[in-house]
Structures are given as structure tokens and as C-alpha cells.
Amino acid sequence: MMTATRPFKRVLDRLQGAGLRPTRQRLGLARLLFEGCDRHVTAEQLHGEALSADLRVSLATVYNTLNQFTDAGLLREVVVEAGKSYFDTNTSDHHHFFLENTGRLEDIPGDHLAIRNLPAAPAGTRIARVDVIVRLVEDGE
Predict the structure, then answer these.
(1) Which pLDDT score is estimated for 4?
(2) In the chain, N or C terminus with fewer CB closer than 10 Å?
(3) CATH architecture label of 6-87
(4) Where are the strands (E) in 82-132, listed by range?
(5) 75 in Cβ contact with 87 (< 8 Å)
(6) Pairing relation of β-strands 94-99 and 76-81?
(7) Which residues contact 135 (CB under 8 A, 6 or more apart)?
(8) Of 83, 74, 92, 80, which Cα lies nearest the Cα of 32?
């Protein structure tokens, strides 16, 4: 088997470390997602980036891959409203600002917000995580 070239090594290791087989589509999408700084992306945005990068994948494949990456802990899904999700490459404990008029999502560091007095979880369950989305509109809107 041919070894990965240096540009692919980091994402290849990341996929294999998460227990995912590095298919051509997964590797190509992982490069788009993880090479560079943390970001928030919709499936449609990533699909457009993939096509621009000559990575021929269907939108359904992009959705499936994003969900597989999320299930493997490589991404975090942020649902801003029914039918509108962003996938976040930053999986650390943090929250978000959502600019409603532009659809932009920005990180709020986890230590910048204190969550207090949470209700007790129902019997047989536990709180896994608390996600806060602070919705913003620009002045004049």
C-alpha cells in the first residue's frame, strides 16, 4: 500500500484515529474541513467547496459524511433552527453567537458563559452537554 503524502498525513491520521476508513470522499472532505483553522460549515457550503476543488461528491454523500464525522467525534452539529444545521470543527466546550440576518455562526469560549441552576435530568438520563446559541441581529435590522 502506498503511504500518504505529507499534505494528507494529518487528516488521514485523524480519520483512522476516529475509526473511520479513509475513503476518497472522506479524505477529500476531511481535507476541506480540517486543514486550516476551526470553522462552521453547512452541508451545502461544503458541497460547493468540494465541487470547486474538483471533488465530485453528491450532496447526500456530504450529509452522510458530516454525520459520520459527527458520530465519530470529529465534528459537532449546531442546530440553529429547524432544518438548518452547521457543523463545527471545534469540538471543545463552547457556545455560539448566531447572526440571524447573515446566517453567520461565531464561537463564544466556554469559560465566557456560566450555566447555573440547571433542572435535574429525568430519571434514567444525564445531561451530556448544554449548548447555548445567542441570537443576534445587526443594529438597524
Answers:
(1) 43
(2) N
(3) Orthogonal Bundle (1.10)
(4) 84-88, 94-99, 104-109
(5) yes
(6) unpaired
(7) 97, 98, 100
(8) 74
Whether the per-residue pLDDT at 140 is higher than 80: the answer is no
The pLDDT assigned to 89 comes to 96
Domain-wise residue ranges, the chain = 6-87, 92-136
Do 51 and 32 touch, CB atoms closer than 8 A?
A: no
Q: Which ranges in the chain belong to alpha helices (H)?
A: 6-17, 24-34, 43-52, 59-71
**pTM tops 0.70, yes or no:** yes
What number of other Cβ atoms are within 10 A of residue 15's Cβ? Answer: 23
The pLDDT tens digits for 68-123 are 999 999 999 999 988 899 999 999 989 999 999 999 999 998 888 888 999 999 99
Are the C-beta atoms of residues 96 and 78 closer than 8 Å to each other? yes
